[in-house]
Amino acid sequence: MIKKNFNRKSLYNKINKDLGFSKDFSSTVVDNFFNTLVGELIKSGKIKISSFGTFKVINKKERIGRNPKTKVEAKILSRKVVKFKPSLLLKEKINKYD
Questions:
Q1: Helix or strand holding residue 57 (H, E)
Q2: Among residues 61, 91, 95, which one has the least CA distance to residue 75?
Q3: pLDDT at position 18, please?
Q4: How many CA atoms lie within 13 A of 54 on its CB side?
Q5: What's 17's DSSP letter?
Q6: Separation between Cα atoms, residue 87 and residue 57, nearest integer Å
Q7: Do residues 57 and 85 lie in contact, with contact meaning Cβ atoms separated by under 8 Å?
Q8: What sign for the dihedral angle of Cα 90, 93, 95, 98?
Q9: pLDDT per residue as tens, the chain (98 positions)
């Protein structure tokens, strides 16, 4: 069985098919949503979407890592990453369909 990724184009097509919006309008809505999400994460560092979950920017400290193949140590620089915590409702829905 081949797994197919669900990407932006798939989302455009799903909105187009389910809601009847044009593909151009669907792509504009999806792109604006993601741009807004990224902008808010940059500005405030945290976004909570009811019944879905919370996105939060966290700082990772500098550390020493190791290449598992060659065993060579390398410095991993400090950086910011986005962490997602699903809501209880989302967890329940996902676990309901196991």
A1: strand 53-60
A2: 61
A3: 94
A4: 10
A5: H
A6: 17
A7: no
A8: negative
A9: 577 889 999 999 999 999 999 999 999 999 999 999 999 999 999 999 999 999 999 999 999 999 999 999 999 999 999 999 999 999 999 998 65
